[in-house]
Amino acid sequence: QANPRRALGVSLASWKSYCLCVQSNTHQRWLAPVEVDCQMSDDRSAIERYLMTACGLASADQLRRLGCFLVAHTVMDTRLIAFLVDREVGRLGGVGVLSLDRLQAITDDIARQTFKVHLNAARPGIPERAAQIAEEINRGRDAFVHWKRGRFDLPRYEGQFVTEEDGFRSCMTAVQEFLLAVPFHQPAWTANP
User: Fold this and answer.
1) Among 40, 32, 38, 39, which residue's Cα sits nearest to residue 15?
2) Residue 85 has pLDDT above 70, yes or no
3) How far is residue 97's CA from residue 100's CA, in Å, rounded to a whole number?
4) Three-class SS of residue 32?
């Protein structure tokens, strides 16, 4: 049985053939592969409607909130990476004693790890509340982006969907608290030891 709200450009036959029924705790979602046969144009509304349908979103506001949530996760990860780079560079003597190539290699090595690895490594040096916020944000993001059959959910923060106004407000307040508690670190410049 196909969802009659299939995306523009996806034939009913394709929709029926490729739909995946994803069970979640309280509802079903119908997802189709990105098989949209549409012309590229300045009108983004067709693809936005497709994305909204694929994620079970009812409004453009929900899509915007979801996008803000994912960007917030990225910015938080950048803060954790900067904190870890600063700590590692300081341990090695500071920016003044390391070559540019070495600084870039340190940054690249740290950045290629996951958010969870960054958080666990940074945890001893950041406030516990900031770590709790980061864990909850990452848990919500993982539930959304690591899709598996039978496990799909829009991100939540403290039990509330971040796509809904109250959940989004609560989440962004926590993100702001995290950003204030974990400022952007720049490796300290030191003279020759």
Assistant:
1) 32
2) yes
3) 10
4) coil
